[in-house]
Specification:
By secondary structure, this protein is of the alpha/beta class. It is built from 13 helices and 14 strands. Bound molecules: pyridoxal-5'-phosphate.
Length: 399
C-alpha cells in the first residue's frame, strides 16, 4: 500500500504553497491565506473521485471510523458487527464510542462473510462495518442488501482499498459512510490523516461539527466562536499541510493502481508454480486495486512449509494467521479485556463484564487464514526482486 514510493516533486510543491501562505489551519484566516484552502479542496476532489457528494477530512483512519460511528449516534448499549480479519483500529473505534464489537467470519474473499453476518445480527446491532482488506472488495452488494433488510447502516472501512471498485462504484460509496486512512503505509499517504465520505448531507454536517468541537462552519456573527453548538464535539481536524499532500497523492492514485495491477500479475505468475495454489476470490476482479497478492495453499502445514522456504530465499510472505495486529485470535489485549481505565471500561461496567471474547469463535476464518500467504504488491517492482521471488517460489514448489 505504498503511496510513499511515489512521493516526489508534486508533494513538495503542494506543501510549499501552504508554507508560503503561512496558514496551517484549515479554517479562518481568510485574508492571510489568499484563497489557499488545501483541506477543503482535498475533500471536494476526494468526494468527486469516490462519486459521492460529501467528504470530511480527519486526523487518521481510526478517527474517521470514530467520527462515522458518532455521526450515526452509536454508543453504549449498541453492538457493531465487523470482521475478525482487520486492523485493530476498526474495533478500537467501536469500543471507543462505548459500543461492543461483534466479530463475524471471513470467506474466500478474505472479507466479511454475508451468511455469518446474517447470523450475528441481534436486536442490539446498530451498524455493520465490512472492511475491504488488502485492496479488494468485500461482498458489499450482498452485505448492503442484508443491512437494508434489517434497516442497519453500513460503514465501509476502506482504509486499505481507496480507488478499488465493484461494478464501477468506488468502494466507500456503497454504505451510509465510507472511511479512509492516509497513514504512512497506505495506498496514498499524508503522513497521518483520514477521510469519511457520504451522500447524506445531514451525516456530513454532524461530522463537520463533531470533528471540530461543535463549530458549525457557517458565517456567524462574531466570526468563528460566535456560534452556539448543537452537541459536544472533539478535535479531529486535518491540517493544511496534510490536505496539500493529499491533493498530490490523490492525483497519483489511478497511476499507483495501474502499476500495482501489472506487478500483481507478474507476482501471480511467479507463485503459480506452487502445487495446488489458488487465489483469493474477487467480487469484481476488474475493480481490484491490486495492493496485495493473497495466495492459498491446500492446507496449513503446506502454507507454513512453503513460507519457510520463501523466507530462506529472502522472499518470505506475510502469514496473517500469526499476525498480531490484523487477526482476531492474536489480539491478546482484546481477548483479555485489557484497558487502562480503573473501572475496566469498556470491557466492564459497574464491576460486571460486558463482553467475553472466545479465541476459538471464528473457525471458518481460521481455516482460511491458516492456508493464506500474502505478498504486498509494490508500485515499483525491480526485475531483481521479481526474479528473487520467482526463484524462491520454484524452490518452495520442489520442497
Ligand atoms: C490503517 C487502517 C486503519 C486505521 O488508519 P490509521 O490512519 O492508521 O488510524 C483502519 N482500518 C484499517 C483496515 C486499516 O488498515
Amino acid at each position: 500500500m505504498p503511496g510513499f514510493e511515489v512521493f516526489g516533486a508534486e508533494e513538495r510543491q503542494e506543501a510549499l504553497a501552504v508554507l508560503d501562505s503561512g496558514v496551517l489551519f484549515r479554517y479562518e484566516f481568510a485574508k492571510e491565506r489568499a484563497g489557499v484552502y488545501k483541506v477543503r479542496e482535498f475533500e471536494e476532489r476526494f468526494a468527486r473521485y469516490c462519486g459521492v457528494a460529501h467528504a470530511q477530512a480527519v486526523t487518521s483512519g481510526t478517527a474517521a471510523l470514530k467520527v462515522a460511528l458518532v455521526a450515526l449516534g452509536i454508543g453504549p448499549g449498541d453492538e457493531v458487527i465487523t470482521q475478525g480479519f482487520t486492523f485493530v483500529a476498526t474495533w478500537e473505534a467501536i469500543l471507543d464510542v462505548g459500543a461492543i464489537p461483534v466479530f463475524c467470519e471471513i470467506d474466500e474473499t478474505l472479507n466479511m462473510d454475508p451468511a455469518d453476518l446474517e447470523r450475528k445480527i441481534s436486536d442490539r446491532t446498530r451498524a455493520i462495518i465490512p472492511v475491504h482488506m488488502m485492496g479488494a472488495a468485500a461482498r458489499i452488494l450482498e452485505i448492503k442488501q442484508i443491512a437494508d433488510r434489517h434497516a442497519l447502516p453500513v460503514i465501509e472501512d476502506n482504509a486499505q482499498s481507496p480507488g478499488a471498485s465493484v461494478q464501477g462504484g468506488k468502494l466507500g460509496s456503497f454504505g451510509a459512510l465510507g472511511t479512509f486512512s492516509f497513514d504512512p503505509v497506505k495506498t496514498m499517504t499524508t503522513g497521518e490523516g483520514g477521510m469519511v465520505v457520504t451522500r447524506d448531507p445531514e451525516l456530513w454536517r454532524a461530522m463537520s461539527e463533531y470533528h471540530d468541537h461543535g463549530h458549525d462552519h457557517l458565517p456567524n456573527p462574531g466570526g468563528r466562536g460566535g456560534e452556539g453548538r448543537r452537541f459536544v464535539g472533539f478535535n479531529f481536524r486535518m491540517m493544511e499541510l496534510q490536505g496539500a499532500l493529499g491533493l498530490a497523492q490523490l492525483a497519483k492514485l489511478d497511476g499507483i493502481i495501474a502499476a500495482q495491477r501489472a506487478n500483481k500479475e507478474r507476482l501471480r505468475q511467479a507463485v503459480s508454480v506452487l502445487d495446488g495454489v489458488s487465489f483469493r476470490a474477487q467480487v469484481d476482479a476488474a475493480g481490484d486495486s491490486a495492493t496485495f497478492l493473497a495466495f492459498l495453499l491446500p492446507e496449513a502445514g503446506r502454507a507454513r512449509a512453503v513460507n519457510r522456504v520463501l523466507r530462506e530465499q529472502g522472499a518470505g510472505a506475510v502469514y496473517f494467521a500469526e499476525n498480531t495486529w490484523h487477526y482476531y485470535p492474536r489480539w491478546e489485549h482484546l481477548l483479555a479485556g485489557a484497558t487502562l481505565a480503573r473501572s475496566g471500561w469498556p470491557f466492564q461496567d459497574g464491576g460486571r463484564r460486558r463482553v467475553i471474547y472466545d479465541p476459538k469463535a471464528l473457525p471458518q476464518s481460521a481455516a482460511i487464514m491458516d492456508r493464506t500467504l500474502v505478498y504486498q504488491v509494490p508500485v515499483r517492482l525491480s526485475e531483481e526482486r521479481l526474479a528473487q521471488i520467482a526463484a524462491a517460489a520454484k524452490a518452495a514448489a520442489k520442497a
